[in-house]
Amino acid sequence: MQHICVLHGPNLNLLGVREPDVYGQVTFDEMNRRIKERAKALDMEARIFQSNSEGEIIDLIQEAMKWADAIIINPGAYTHYAYAIRDALVASRLPIVEVHLTNVHAREEWRRHSVIAPIATGQIIGFGMNGYLLALSAVKTLLEESHR
Ligand code: DQA
Fold first, then answer.
1. Count of CB atoms within 10 A of residue 30's CB?
2. Contact at 8 Å (CB) between 30 and 133?
3. Annotated catalytic residue, options 8, 23, 78, 132
């Protein structure tokens, strides 16, 4: 069974409460329930973490190196400037899927730049919480192909 580390960055714990017109009505707990459910249906295990601090996210990535087959990460606003998170992801040598709930290219200019994108396997953006479910399918195929 594949083990997937799902990492939510700062403020994502406020999902459902935070700017629902931008980020949707689905709560953080409900989203995580659906992620776990989809992972199970794909015969994978999703372990989900959220942190509002950069150092803690780096610690979680370093931990994931010991057990995960891939990382699905929404780094929140850290996406746009957190080089230390990028370095940790590179060090992990794991496949990385960068997810954003919103289409960051259709928002403020500063959200268009991701320091994670160049080192990610791929990005899924703009599909709301469904992006995480799409990311699970993408990772599933990716891992199957790499074991062929
Ligand atoms: C976000 C986009 C970021 O720009 C923002 O800071 C977030 C959420 C998204 O999922 O759309 O916190 O990562």
1. 13
2. no
3. 23
* pLDDT for the residue 73: 99
Residue 147: the pLDDT is: 78
CATH fold group of domain 2-146: Rossmann fold (3.40.50)
User: What are the sequence ranges of the domains in the chain?
Assistant: 2-146
Q: Are 72 and 4 in contact (CB under 8 A)?
A: yes
* pLDDT (0 to 100) of residue 38: 98
β-strand 96-100 against 44-50: which pairing, if any? unpaired
Q: Could you tell me the two tokens for 90?
A: 């590179």
Q: Which atom of ligand 1 is nearest to the CA of 22?
A: 11
Catalytic residue among 8, 78, 81, 100: 100
6 Cα to the center of ligand 1, angstroms:
15
Q: Give the CA dihedral 95, 96, 101, 105, nearest 10 degrees.
A: -120
Regions of the chain where pLDDT drops below 70? none
E-strand stretches of the chain = 2-8, 44-50, 70-74, 96-100, 122-125
CA atoms lying within 13 Å on the CB side of residue 115: 16
